[in-house]
Amino acid sequence: MGVEEELLVVGADGVPVPGGPAALATAARRGEAEDVDQHDRADRGEDAGVPDDARLVPELKAQQLELGTPVCSTLGEVHDQLRHWRDRADAAAVSRGLRVAALGTSPVAVDPVPTPGERYDRMLDAFGRTAEEALTCGCHVHVSVGDDEEGVAVLDRIRVWLPVLTALSANSPFWQGADTAYASYRSQVWRRWPSAGPTGTFGDAAGYHRLVRAALATGTVLDEGQLYFDARLSATWPTVEVRTADVLLRVEDAVTLAGLVRALVETAAREAGAGTAPPDVPSEVLGLAAWRASRSGLGGDLVHPRTGRPAPAADVLADLLGHVGPALADAGDQARVTDGVHALLARGTGAELQRRVHRETGDLRAVVRAAVAVTAGTDAAEPDAGGSR
């Protein structure tokens, strides 16, 4: 498995700053990053000469950068790699007088600045204000599968649980200086992209690829990389990629998410092997479940994947843990992931921490400063979790 995180680049005053390309240029000199020119050349299919261990890359907006772990086998490795690459991203930003923050959206008002590059220019031209205003940070989890047939069998069976992952990761309550009343407003902004959201069942790999071809044939998206389904087959790696989460404020919460995603994939693969049919839930109902998860996070009812009815978030998470329990146990992850879920229920998501800081200070810039500290692991809000139990 592997994890990708998008981070905000911010100044000392808490305002996002278009310093991502400069920070990445510093990191590229250390062999840790693709700079903007390398990334743009790679998108055009040219040899950019990127070091194999470069794990920091540009994003759509210059107020962002992205990190990605190498392939990991254990949650302890995921933790250590996320901690390492968050530190390297922060060090690159510090070299330019800036910091990074794991926030799904900016709490303070900001004018997004596009990252230079041919692909990003095409996106801005094609999608107008949707691309202009998009300054959101997500977390994507990749889990390996044997082939496309297994991958599609997994996609068909995990789709009903994906809104629960949105609720668990909620970390974007503020937008342009105001409280949105959502726990994950990033999810609402993200749904503006034409291909974003839940999908129906595909049946088999041929059905998945037919849909991909049909979507590309509309000319609405630039390429397969812009098929922003909630979960998809990676076009680059032999993985299922789950894309519904906000970037999580705490490293350990990202580890919990990764453990749940891997267990969901393994459980789905076992169900498919046993001939268990995927749940028959319309994508329209999944869209409603996703909206509800975005609205309340873990602070209210969620739509239960098994019943389609509202249920307390704690009950839904308990049923999720039960659903994936054998896979967690077989991977040696059960104690760590169960404790991680209980910790989220007890102290709240990143959205709840952001609102708590705002209530205490009345200052959205203080919210960003608190997020910088937690992202860096220097705040007591993040537990010490340096390896597998």
TrEMBL record:
Pfam families membership: GCS2
Coiled-coil stretches noted in the UniProt entry, renumbered to this chain: none
Entry EC number(s): 6.3.2.2
Region (Disordered): 12-53
GO MF: ATP binding; glutamate-cysteine ligase activity
Statement: the UniProt record of this protein carries the keyword Transmembrane: no
Gene Ontology biological process terms, A to Z: modified amino acid biosynthetic process
NCBIfam families associated with the record: gshA_cyan_rel, PRK13517.1-1
Family: Belongs to the glutamate--cysteine ligase type 2 family. YbdK subfamily.
Stated name of the protein: Putative glutamate--cysteine ligase 2
